[in-house]
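Morning run. Coffee first, then this:
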Amino acid sequence: MKKKTVYIWMGTIAALTIVLFTVIYFFHLQNDAVKVASNIKGGKPNLSNYIQGDMDNPLNKPMDATKIGQWVYVTDTNHQQVQVFDISGAFIFKFGKKGTGEGEFLFPYGITGDKKGNIYVADLYNNRISIFDSKGKFVKYFTNDENKADFLQSPAGLRIFNNHLWVTDIKLGKVFEYSLTGKKLLEVSTAANKDDLLNAPNAVALDDEKNIYVSDSGNQRIVVFKKNGEYVRVINGSKNNKGDTKFVNPRGVGVEPDGTLLMVDNMTHYVYGFNQKGEQVFQIGGIGSDKGQFYLPNGLFVDNNGEVFVTDTVNQRIAVYN
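And here it is:
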């Protein structure tokens, strides 16, 4: 009788062990599936901190930002200057002043940097792009292959990708790709057909496959192109992107390392996330000045680590997400 009881207990323990391992196996399987799904769809970024400047150097209408090394460069547009911070938000220095001369601005807008640490600033009203070293010393104007500094009419968005400079020109309604020596490599002005013109393109971003994303602000949409400028699709937030747009003045765009497209919608005060099919996967923000809210956000930059910087113009701050 005792031996029979022992066998029963041994069988029970064996059965419980099998059940336990089965539960653990399916738990890990499900957890891995969640991770894969997260990588495919893109997870909602988490608010880390704000960059606001200090009492003596408050931002006034920050329009765009970029991170070069460990420093964050912000176009402080109403002060006609660029302010520089560390990632915690501590003020480092500033450069530029109001004017039309070398190193001066009227409306500093887009900002980007190259691998040497040089900073490129688009001046919307002076119709040119100025280049500075990492400490803010003026180096030269960016010129085209005819050595002209004023070859653009209203340069806005700037991004450097694979040592090529991408520029949006609001008045011309075009997006340009240039070598860093000023040679024009690509010009994009239409979407689906020759009559489907870009209208006030504001910002540009590229993904790892060199797909091009343009915020076509005047047409209230994002336009996606292949690396050669061939039209791919429109993203406007409607079902299957076939209906009326839900965007109102789309501005900054950026692509996270997992391929998630981020877009600032200026007048709805949201940042939207889209998967690689153009389907919305999340939104963050909403109008206000509380934590996690925006008031007329404009620029968006994603660094190589997936940190996201959003310029919040009326709230006079940069929201940092990771």
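The helical segments are 2-41. Good start to the day.
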